[in-house]
Amino acid sequence: MNIPKVMTIAGSDSGGGAGIQADLKTFAALGVYGASTLTAITAQNTVGVTAVHEIPTDVIRAQIDAVLSDIGADAVKTGMLSSSTIIECVVEALKKHGVQQLVVDPVMVAKSGDSLLREDAVDSLRTRLLPLAAVVTPNIPEAEALTETKIVSDADVRRAAEAIVAMGARSVVVKGGHREGPATDLFYDGSDFREFTAPRFDTVNTHGTGCTFASAVAAGLARGMPVIEAVALAKDYVTEAIRTSFPIGQGHGPLNHFYKLWE
Question: What average pLDDT does range 153-167 have in this prediction?
Answer without folding.
Answer: 96
